[in-house]
Automatic annotation (TrEMBL):
Its EC number is 3.7.1.22. Residues 423-576 form the Thiamine pyrophosphate enzyme TPP-binding domain. Belongs to the TPP enzyme family. Residues 38-134 form the Thiamine pyrophosphate enzyme N-terminal TPP-binding domain. PANTHER family: 3D-(3,5_4)-TRIHYDROXYCYCLOHEXANE-1,2-DIONE HYDROLASE (PTHR18968:SF9), THIAMINE PYROPHOSPHATE ENZYMES (PTHR18968). This is 3D-(3,5/4)-trihydroxycyclohexane-1,2-dione acylhydrolase (Decyclizing).
Amino acid sequence: MSDTVRLTCAQALVRYLAALRARDADAESAQPLFGGVFAIFGHGNVAGLGEALYDARHELPTYRAHNEQAMAHTAIAYAKASMRRRMMAVTTSIGPGATNLVTAAALAHVNRLPVLLLPGDVFVSRAPDPVLQQLEDFADGTVSVNDCLRPVSRYFDRIVRPEQLLTALPRAIRALTDPALCGPVTLALPQDVQTEAYDYPGSFFAPREIVFRAPIPTDDELMLALDAIEASQRPVIVAGGGALYARATPELLAFADRHGVPVCETQAGKGAMPWNHPLQLGPAGVCGSTAANAILRDADLVIAVGTRLQDFTTGSNALFRHVPILSINVNTFDTLKGDGVEVIGDAAQVLDDLSFGLEGWAAPDAWTERAREAARAWVDTVSRITGQRHAPPGRRPYDGEVIGAVQRSSTTSAMRDIVVCAAGTLPAELEKLWRTETAGGYHMEYGYSCMGYEIAGGLGVKMAHPDREVIVMVGDGSYLMMNSELATSVMLDAKLIVVLLDNRGYGCINRLQQATGGAPFNNLFDDCVQGRHGAPRVDFAAHARALGAIAEHVADIAGLEAALERARAADRTYLVCIDTDPARTTDDGGAWWEVAVPEVSPRTAVREARAAYETAMADRKTGKPSP
């Protein structure tokens, strides 16, 4: 038996990926690390990588999509829904297909999510230059459009010889599976090199199981953390996405119960603790609950677990600027935020270690009881808001009432539903109002707040969890930006329930515009430049049906609830559209968010907004908690 096997570069790449395995904590046996490859073929990848994928189609499935950015979103959502234990690859041709990946790569980079990008590239030989879709850089002959992916990739490589895979692929897999490095990886594949053969070592393709490692905290770090917690009188935990990716829910619950420390959550961390836990305060920050933000303002220690402390969580660094931060994270970059005590390590392990070291210690009873009372009050507030079945007279329903209807449509197994969203008003409303008892039951892309992620992301979630109901909630603005993977969901028999809230424009940014003193302008259809036919009345249900889904438009909350029953019983993707109010939002909760206001303006409203902005900035400088 030969010690080598002759394969093209593309064949070797595919065989290597297909041989990788990963073991989930809940699985009896290891599964393929890669759940498949999304591909839109063109002249830069169809002959080389396309042929290799065809040969391996039973071991490494290839899925066709309709938009390169969308299929990358789907792959990213698949990895997020798999808690970064499984992932997908994406391949495109060399031109616009490759540049369409840039937005998705940035999204994955910001959210620390793995996706392997395999864009085709121009000829290394340069013999036919310039080929179709080739960008010619007049100052640098080595540049192609794929270089746009460098700043949004955690690891980037251009494979200019087949044997380079021997070093590039292990590096790529390490970046994709390391909890601290995790993010998008780009391997640019020149189309001539894809087809070139090399005698690869047979051992390179031996099945191997990926081990997911996390750094172990030092004793000194743990001692400093224990000292900080024991010295505190009013500690509070902020649970981020890292708590979910570390599967740290049991340890988080045990820590909170044993030591009486209340917990609030970020967008990425929502679901790490069940909504009905007595010490669950709800979300923190700009989209936060009254309970969480009140406790944070009075805290004397914030224990940040697996969060990168972005501005929506911290209220633009004003909500708990006065509070020392104990940061637990696998990523050293993230632990630096807040200038506090750093513990580098896996959330589950560190929480367990700290709880062991805190044997006999608990937060003061008065603080724990205050947190429980605040949590109960917030549960009542959410029930009041989502329990509304009728909009005020003369008004349309708003997001909170729609969320309530969707939540009520769930059966006794409701908490197995997964809600998916990304941008606009809905993230704020869902973070406050959606209830889930299971880790992963809330899937929000809000690190990059990327409009158009919703349906493509929902497809990825469904592919990761085919046995669970996936509910995509999306505004009309995001739907019009990117909806093509609705057809893909029908083609793949990956049923989604899509609830589309039509407020005739960009309602969220319209309100922000006015909150900063601006006049309503260029956001809602009514405030846009229009031709002689006026703004369109989009029939979203008809559009969804044209893509192969079942769809209907409903007039009110009662109609929505009835439609959701039909959607749950349907055998394929089902879209329900409801007209909503662009002005109404949930007033309860929230915190200041820094949005710069013009210093000079002829408009009184802008000048007033600027004065309020300057006051908030001054409060932040003095460390005064934001109202």
